Amino acid sequence: MTEKTSGAAAPLLRLTGVGKNYGNVIALRDVSLEASEGEVTCVLGDNGAGKSTLIKVVAGLHRHDTGTYEVQGEKVAFGSPRDALDRGIATVYQDLAVVPLMPVWRNFFLGSEKRKRFAVMDVEFMRETTHREMAAMGIDLRDVNQPIGTLSGGERQCVAIARAVYFGAKALVLDEPTAALGVKQAGVVLRYVVQARERGLAVIFITHNPHHAYPVGDRFLILNRGQSIGYHAKNDITRDELTALMAGGSELEELAHELDTTAAGTAAAKELRKETLNP
Amino acid sequence: MTHAVAEPPATRPPGPDERLARQSPLRRLLGRPELGALLGAIALFAFFSLVADSFLQTDSFSTVLYASSTFGIMAVGVSLLMIGGEFDLSAGVMVTSAALIAALTAYQFTLNVWAGVVISLVLTLGLGMVNGLLYVRTRLPSFIITLATFFMLAGLNLGVTKALTGNVASDSVRDMDGFDSARTVFASDVDVLGVNVKVTVFWWLLFVAVATWILLRARVGNWIFAAGGAAGSARAVGVPVDRVKIGLFMGVAFCAWFSGMHLVFAFATVQSGEGVGNEFLYIICAVIGGCLLTGGYGSAIGAAIGAFIFGMTNKGIVYAEWNPDWFRFFLGAMLLIATVVNLIVRRRVERSS
């Protein structure tokens, strides 16, 4: 189900009014987003804001229920992650990045194994390429045969990013790559985000940390409770505004939730909710 | 690239990384899934050599090998399935089903037995596919699904055989066309250096070699490890996890077909109640050989060593002239020891790396 739409320079990815329901739960409602080559689009939001659902729609794990999803101006509805990969959209998941018990090189080429004649895997080539690509990203592996579970969290994310870049991804979707990492490790990952942008990839970077997002991002989409509460280019928002939008949104939400539990607080909670949605 | 990016390290001279020097070959060996089983096999061999005088005779050795091969062939399919993260409790009775299908169709329609062999192959692979499809469609644990198919097959084996022959065993196919040639393929024996070796031993070694090649060198081997180790991650990079799992259930069915054909042409009649309980023995072989119950780790060679341990214990108890009633006790104890040894070895390797 693809169909051409007019538009000379369509962005690589464009979501317009996209929504997704799980049964009667509305996980995502009317979210719009663009990602172009050489740009980092950050998606911010607290836990449960709908970031993961948005990513799963982009990556082809889920199909959106409403709105349109266009890749280079063509409407698409992906049936599987393979469809998205074939279009050059690679996703690195926070929890689904790698298979811990498998060696680094097997992980690197998983799903896109290099083969010689008669379906034989070209193991030497894959080992060398993995070592070289990881070295190019600044990670000098002792041994590409070691189980990837023995690497640090940051290194694992980097293997997944290096893999996506190596296989010619045009768009790179990063699902909370810095969430479980220490300050230094997060810095390493952020450098690869910048490097991917420099290579001309469209990067969609999901995080709940505005301090990670602001230095690398070109555009910022802030989600709350499945809806967009702000979509800004870097030059019309400051770091402090972004932080306030993020933190204010979540803190007021928390407060409103607490007030909700007492009958007297319900009215006050409503007021706070209004403020959260229209900051 | 104007942005600061981690500098690629200076080109290293070719050859192993200097930081690997501390990892001794022994440690590398300790990381292999087969190691626990190999040590166990050596210990058990030494043990039975000491306590049973007749254990080291060539006759005994060929008997041990034969017992190992009949279970080892099934353990190949079962171990691949376990690496892929699933169980098949119907594997034991599926062997009997495969044998009955071949014997009954050939006899009832007075066909050449090879026709029965082929029909059995198609139908048995179909049974494996049903297991796989049920798993993929329902997402129920494979333990439950194959437990159900196990009972259904056990009932079918008995019910259909009785309905067709009025007996609990199939009619003899010994005098039918093609029996001799089929027997050569599935149930003959040859002398190798004075040792009488059953043909199943060669088939067993061949299947182990093929399975090992698949796991280590074929693309689908990569997919099997990934499907068992982290199915979600595998799916996210485009591995067709469902097809891999259906294929693995069919792999078990193929081994069941082969074992069934051995039964038909070794004994000519098939007892319809046989096979119950064997599925656990196959799983024991795979687990002793280092396959993780949770999937994603293991080897076909390990499962073969597991089957050899099984064969040695099975026959060694007889040669030691102990009461064979104790066999199951030893089997259970060995399973326990093997899994604990595997656990300790793996933890030690993980901590030191």
Automatic annotation (TrEMBL), chain A:
Alphabetically ordered keywords of this record: ATP-binding, Nucleotide-binding
Pfam families in the cross-refs: ABC_tran
GO molecular function: ATP binding; ATP hydrolysis activity
Record-annotated ABC transporter domain positions: 13-250
InterPro entries reported for this sequence: AAA+_ATPase, ABC_carbohydrate_import_ATPase, ABC_transporter-like_ATP-bd, ABC_transporter-like_CS, P-loop_NTPase
Stated name of the protein: Sugar ABC transporter ATP-binding protein
Lineage: Bacteria, Bacillati, Actinomycetota, Actinomycetes, Streptosporangiales
Automatic annotation (TrEMBL), chain B:
Principal location: membrane
Entry annotated with the keyword Ribosomal protein: no
Signal peptide: none
CDD domains according to UniProt: TM_PBP1_transp_AraH_like
Region described as Disordered: 1-22
InterPro entries (UniProt xref): ABC_transp_permease
Subcellular location: Cell membrane
Keyword vocabulary terms for this entry: Cell inner membrane, Cell membrane, Membrane, Sugar transport, Transmembrane, Transmembrane helix, Transport
Residue stretches spanning the membrane: 35-52, 64-82, 89-107, 113-136, 143-160, 199-216, 223-241, 247-268, 280-310, 326-345
GO CC annotations on file: plasma membrane
A GO molecular-function descriptor: transmembrane transporter activity
Protein topology in the membrane: Multi-pass membrane protein
Function field: Part of the binding-protein-dependent transport system for D-xylose. Probably responsible for the translocation of the substrate across the membrane.
Listed name of the protein: Xylose transport system permease protein XylH
Native species: Actinomadura syzygii
